[in-house]
Specification:
28% of the residues lie in helices and 30% in strands. It contains three helices and four strands. InterPro entries: DUF6440.
């Protein structure tokens, strides 16, 4: 259980750093130390699928609308912004994640 919590906190820290590094974005959440409840609520899961030890999750940043793909297999994984055909970040409309 503790391992899952640490993985979740790490995923959100990486997502916050990626969101804050987008052009024109001002940092809106801290990335050092413990995440507070505001940071944990910034990202919503809009799709989740798993098969065996493999998990794929699409997160959306509710501040910017940018979507991220989290991929995990066993104890390894990564997080990357979803890109469209032109290499630009996929931005979800509020109706897709504000339910």
């Amino acid at each position: 259980m503790r391992s899952a919590r640490l993985r979740t906190e790490f995923t959100f820290q990486v997502a916050i750093r990626m969101a804050n590094s987008l052009p024109g974005q001002k940092p809106r959440a801290s990335v050092g130390g413990k995440l507070d409840s505001v940071d944990m609520n910034r990202f919503r899961t809009i799709h989740k699928e798993s098969e065996g030890m493999t998990r794929r999750v699409i997160l959306v940043d509710t501040t910017t609308g940018v979507c991220y793909l989290e991929f995990a297999r066993g104890s390894a994984g990564g997080l990357t912004p979803l890109l469209d055909a032109h290499g630009k970040p996929v931005v979800a409309s509020p109706g897709e994640y504000l339910t």
